[in-house]
Design brief:
Strand content: 25-35%
Shape: globular
Helix content: 25-40%
CATH superfamily: Class I glutamine amidotransferase (GATase) domain
Largest sheet: 9 strands, mixed
Number of domains: 1
CATH class: Alpha Beta
Number of strands: 13
Length: 240
């Protein structure tokens, strides 16, 4: 964790969805609080980045690290497929996050992709997705029921950034009905569920670019992944 007085600013993408709160029922830019709590616990300063602008370079210039959070499926037209019957998309969020990611990678900003975030990262680099895992695995263990997280043990590749943070294996909470099919260019698979599903991928090199298919924010007692992002973001901040 960052212990000095100069904490890095971590941008987190958000949903834009119909919501109800207090006396209001309206469209809202929102995010599960556990994401921001995890960033704070890891020593960073969270800021929310709603998908309402195309000023990608300007946004990236204001943050020291980026979290692409979970959410709806990536539009399969982005990887040359027709949508599966179970696929649900938010095209405006795709446009925003793909643009934001391009700007972040170009600037060398550290990136952590969570669930959908891994899929955005891979598709942005030319990858494809398996649109409905139960069709391939015959199991719903990765998404047992609406609003219910599955549990899994992920094996991590020796020598990978992910393994240096979490060890050879880690127990995770997951909620995804899609997964990596063909991995994007420049990414290497570094984590797998027992059924062979790719659960983590990263870009080799000095820049911190890591995507994970599970939801680490659901365990705010274990913020190792967020702490690693904050540390990388602190170094990036100092280099600017």
């Amino acid at each position: 964790m960052v212990s000095n007085g100069s904490k890095p600013v971590i941008g987190l993408t958000t949903y834009v969805e119909p919501a109800r709160f207090l006396v209001w029922e309206t469209e809202a830019a929102l995010l599960h609080r556990v994401y921001v709590d995890s960033v704070v616990a890891a020593g960073g300063v969270p800021v929310l980045l709603p998908p309402v602008t195309d000023a990608y370079a300007e946004l990236v210039s204001t943050v020291d690290g980026l979290v692409l959070v979970g959410g709806a499926d990536v539009d399969p037209t982005r990887y040359g497929q027709e949508p599966h019957a179970t696929t649900y998309t938010r095209p405006n969020r795709d446009t925003f996050e793909f643009g934001l990611l391009d700007a972040a990678l170009a600037a060398g900003v550290p990136v952590l992709g969570v669930c959908r975030g891994l899929q955005v990262l891979s598709v942005a680099l030319g990858g494809t997705l398996a649109q409905h895992l139960p069709d391939a695995t015959g199991s719903t263990e990765h998404q047992p029921a609406p609003g219910t997280f599955g549990t899994s043990t992920v094996s991590l590749a020796e020598g990978s950034r992910a393994a240096s943070i979490l060890g050879a294996e880690t127990k995770v909470q997951c909620y995804h009905h899609q997964a990596i099919d063909r991995l994007g260019d420049g990414l290497v698979p570094v984590g797998w569920a027992a059924d062979g599903t790719i659960e983590a991928a990263e870009r080799p090199g000095d820049d911190f670019v890591l995507g994970i298919q599970w939801h680490p924010e659901q365990d705010t007692e274990d913020v190792r992944l967020f702490a690693a992002l904050v540390e990388a973001s602190s170094r990036y901040k100092e280099s600017k």
